[in-house]
Amino acid sequence: MSSSTTHSSVNIAILGASGYTGAELVRLLAVHPYAKITVMTADRNAGQAFGTVFPQYAFGDFGKSLPSLIKVDDITDWSDIDIVFCCLPHATTQEIISKIPLDSVKVIDLSADFRLADIDTYAKWYGGEHKAPELQKEAVYGLTELYRDQVKSARLVANPGCYPTAAQLPLIPLLKKNLILSQDIIIDAKSGTTGAGRSAKVGSLFCEVSDGIHAYSVAAHRHAPEIEQGLSEAAGSEVIVNFTPHLMPINRGILEALYVKLSKEVSIDDIRQCLETQYADEPFVHVLPAGNVPHTRHVRGSNHVLIGITEDRIPGRAIIISAIDNVVKGASGQALQNMNVMCGFPEMTGLEGMPVFP
Asked: 76-97, pLDDT tens digit by residue?
């Protein structure tokens, strides 16, 4: 395992490497100087080379160095693994992670299985009893910029969801400072189709998605309780949000318009100053100058977050726009950022790449 002074390399296992988040982790780790991928699982593609499943990795020394895909159950010895990225579907990771020796292996779970602290809330929204309640008690919510100190010493990190990342980074500091009211928060969110995962679904087919936009899981999206958990903690009281996600005919990107009411005698300048101060030294979160609006294309392929702040025409209200790449900052990039913090590596390692445009 790495130390913060020597930066010796770590051996990495990616469970669920054939999905979008697993493949994105491979792309990011390709330029990480302290990471070596030693195990990759994909049950349906077991026995195949990774470059067969994703041909872009069939070339070059890095691609050729990747291990062949195996089944999760084929891992019987964890002693040579330092870090596990779990990119498996929701409700499948609890039993798997419970078998990993957390005294010697650190785990970053990209599913929703350990994000909700209350297991009854998890059961309500995910349709099944939590199968590792003792592990849930020690899981750290990995919104890196806001929980960095907890992530640093964690054995198990619950990587945040994409919509919650884009919503909480602007809203949590404002609620903590009592600059906005905790009532009537509206989150109007749009996402690219990668957010639905790589499994074949009718709703993700080209003809179902292209040339249109539609809302889905209205008043019923599973990311709502995750957002409310973070906002309630920040506000010190229960927060219930109006959250409506929409599917956009793009591959990557999340754009959220956050409509908030200002507290008494709070100005739009106070909102801006709070967020600028909060993220002044953060390498990935950027509060844009007044008059600028975030675009998803300006964060595509990167771990960056763009935040724009506008005074509403309705007195006492503000509109905050947040943009991220849902596969990077909303998933694999933030997972790698958390790994860097857990291992004592420079936080930007492997994440220095600029957004891809056009």
From this structure: 999 999 999 999 998 899 999 9
